[in-house]
Hints:
- With 354 residues, the chain is α/β, with parallel strands linked by helices.
- It is built from ten helices and 20 strands.
- The chain has helices spanning 42-50, 100-103, 145-164, 179-190, 203-211, 226-237, 251-260, 281-286, 301-310, 328-336; strands at 6-12, 15-20, 30-39, 52-53, 56-57, 62-63, 67-75, 87-90, 93-94, 114-115, 128-132, 136-138, 171-175, 195-200, 216-219, 243-246, 266-269, 290-293, 319-324, 342-346.
- Strands 3, 7, 8, 11, 12, 19 and 20 form a seven-stranded mixed β-sheet that branches. The chain has a six-stranded parallel β-sheet with strand order 15-14-13-16-17-18, sandwiched between helices. It has a three-stranded antiparallel β-sheet with strand order 2-1-6, with no helix packed on it.
- α4 links the parallel β13 (171-175) and β14.
- The protein is globular and about 60 Å long.
Amino acid sequence: MSQDNLSVVLHSKGDLRLENRPIPEPEPNEVLLQMHSVGICGSDVHYWQNGRIGDFVLKKPMILGHEASGRVVKVGAAVKHLKVGDRVAIEPGVPRGTDEFFRNGRYNLSPTIFFCATPPDDGNLCRYYTHSANFCYKLPDNVTFEEGALIEPLSVGIHACRRAGVTLGSSVLICGAGPIGLVCLVVAKAMGASQVVITNLSSERLAVAKELGADFQVTVTRGDAPQQLAQNVADMLGAQPHITIECTGVESSIQTAIYATRSGGVVVLVGLGSEMATVPLINAAVREVDIRGVFRYCNTWPMAIAMLASGKINVKPLVTHRFPLEQAVQAFETTRQGLGIKVMLKCDQTDQKP
């Protein structure tokens, strides 16, 4: 085991550094992981560019990264289900207590939850990282480390589709074809959605959506009227969609989502924009369109692993760029510029394969 623990540390807004940190020792219920693949999320870039997301404010240096997989190199004394050499995917949110949300199985809503790379909690964009063993999930031999890292964004799609009630025969509109819109697409199709329409500003992203199974792609332009876009979607499908999953957080797109959704249907808000938004709430109310929020995910890793291992879901096309950990700043800049879809950092110097 090398003694080098190169880590990607955000010191303050705009100040991203590569520095060596001590290799941590696992607590009794933890494992020490040699990190392999870590994806860069929009939230990582947002912290880098703004120093905060909503109420989560960077006050001290923080290691970034939360879409991750690695190999167990040391096991805490109380850990029984994992052993040295196991390849694992990491669920970054670990409840700290057994409050009502934990007891109800909705631990993602616990206000005291630990979450990688959310201030003040360190993430795992480094060579070595300790994590609760109960939130490390063993990967089958036919699931790659990169697929293991992609379970984190995939989990957002699973949780969103569960909250939406996607089922056999559902028609679904997805607003936004970034990484989260695309995972919502593959999950919706796997859950039985018969028709999926996806919208985006970029035709390149929509081409990937088509490859991943979208039935219709809609190129939107800034300034498009939400009600007209909603009508275009209904014309494509022959009827309004049962479900809309909004992945942009843009006010006009939320308006489109409400107008587009069939009466009695569901709008799920995944994308996060400004705190206040002007939306046609009365339109939704009188048509009994339910508006549901999504905050991260819970109880999704076992399902995601099963779907990847069985080949029912393919996320490999999402990875468009790879960088060694030493080139993290360049990798972050690539993500900031919106190039490609998912940028993956490779943390193990001896194994840079997917």
